[in-house]
Structure formats: C-alpha cells, structure tokens
Amino acid sequence: MGNDYVRMIAESGLTIFDSIEVGDTDLWIPTPDLERILNEALVGVDGLDVPIRTRSKLVKQHVCRALGYPVPKSFTKIQPRFYGQMFDTYAQKANNLQIWNEELSPSRRYVLLRVDEAGVITRVKVVNGEELAQLDTTGTLTQKYQARLVPGDQSAELIASTDTEMLVPHVCLGANLAENVSPIDHPAHGLILPIRELFDRLRGAVGRTFPDAGRDQERNRGAALHRIVCELLGYADYRDDGRFPDVRNQLLEVKLQTSPTIDLGLVLPASEDPLDVPQIEGTQVRHCDVRYALFSAHTDGMNVTLTNVYLTTGASFFSRFPQFGGKVLNRKLQIPLPSDFFNS
Predict the structure, then answer these.
(1) In this structure, are 197 and 117 located in the same domain?
(2) Host H or E run for residue 52
(3) What is the number of domains present in the chain?
(4) What is the mean pLDDT of the segment spanning 109-125?
(5) 136 closest CA partner among 100, 109, 98
(6) Which residues pair with 98 in a beta bridge?
(7) Domain region containing 252
(8) The pTM is what?
C-alpha cells in the first residue's frame, strides 16, 4: 500500500502545502505507513554531515521525493512545514529534541530522523504530539488532562451500551478476528466488534494475574495487560506498536489503573477531532468514537491482579469519570528522547 500512496500523491499534482483531509484513503498517509515508507526510502541516505540549517533543508527535500511530492524552491515557514500531511521533520544527531516557537500539538506528526556522525540516516520514527508528551520527564509540559476513577459496585461495568452513531454502521457481531486481522491493523468495515460484545469478552479479564514488573516498568505492565486483551478478543497473536489506540483494529484504548488517577495526555476522550486512521467506507473516525477499557488492579509486589473492568466510548467517558480541572499548557520544549527510542 505504501507505493500506492506515493504514486497517488505524485499523480495528484499536490504540493506539501496543499491540504488533505485526515483519513483520505488515497492521499492521507496514516502514521504507521508513513514511518514505513520513509524508512524504506531514506535509511542509508548520506551527505548530511553539514551545518544544521543545510541539513534541515536537505532532509525536507529527501522527504518530499520519498513521498512523491515535488521539491519546492523554498520551504515556506508555515506550521507544520509539511502542511498537507500535518508533520514537521527533525534531523537528530543527539537525543535532545528541541521544538521551538510553537506548542506541542497532539494531532501533529513529528518525523524524527536519526543521523549518525558520518551524516547518514539510520532510522526514521514518526510520532504525534501525544506520544511525545509521554516521553517528557522534564516537567516542561506543566499539565496534562486527567480524570478520576471512582469505583462502582460491579466488577464489570459497561458505561456506554452502544457505540457512537458514527461507528454503529461499521460494527459486526461475532466478527472473526483470528483469521482476518491483527490488533494493529487499521479498523475495517465489518471487522469491528460492537461495544457490548467487546464488554462480554473483556470482562473475562477480571481475576486474571500477571507478574509485576514494578512501578517504574509501566510499559511492561501495560504489555502484559495488552496480551490478555488480545487473547480475550480472539486474535491469533499479540501485537502492540505503542500507538493510540492500543488495539487500533478495534478502536480500543486500554488503560491499567493501579491508582484512581486516569492519565489522558493531551487529548480529551470526548474530542471530535479526526483520528489518524483511514476512513471506513467514507466515515472518518474521531477520538470520541474510540472505545476505552479501564482495568483496575492491585499488586502485592509480586503479581498484579485485575479486579474491575470499565468500558465506555470516548463520547461517554466523562459521564462516568470526572475530569480534573485545569488546562494543558505548553511552552518551548526540549524533550530528551530515550536511549532506545530509535531502536523500537
């Protein structure tokens, strides 16, 4: 499919400054595909052992060619520079990512290219502002959205009994996930389980346990929970690429709660902004259409035990979980990337 995106962009005659609707099945390149295309085209490209400003311009030119866009005579100072695909490029010789004179946008993509000491591109990673915010350990982001999990009387609680009107036409009772799809595939018409069936399958997680990797190993804890979720949903295997939502194929975000505070990052569940996935039979999925599964758990230091599951749509999220007050505030950002950032 990657070559199809590049070909269709080249045939369209569009420039990087021309707007494209998020989810356009021909011209909008979803983030996983964007990362794959750029890695295939750019890893091994050399000649970038030059001053920073020159390197930045050369990188943009290489990216244009890789995606099928004509190289402009100059890169107009608009935000983001690649306005049509909603991303900026950052050539990184070091792990200190600097974003100047703009806010961190949860919907914008950030194309980060690792350049070695010889000026050769060795890896490309594409993340959005929400994913970058999770990497911030400096306190530069002074506040992110949060909500409170107030326990109920039931161990399994379905908060939204039906999916959003936008999603309902595309769900299918009893969809066979084992034979047709992977958890990280894009959602497709007829292969999305209704929220009530999701609930019936996920409630089987209550009482399950897994080894506790420790409070400072939240990623490993999350991976263990995701494996259980994929098993209960009926997938043939477990896959997680770290992108939102966790089980992209089912538009399902999974959260492990060992405390009452629900971290929501920079995007509100009820947001009607478009989600970075291809349109489903002409329907553009929004953040509020995503389903959220919250698993309460306790740990004895050795094992984590799942005690409750709550399932809701983004649209109904705050009808059950009260939002903490406050606004997101961003300023000049310097985010230290993890040492293994470009290896994952």
Answers:
(1) no
(2) helix 52-67
(3) 2
(4) 96
(5) 98
(6) 334
(7) 145-320
(8) 0.84
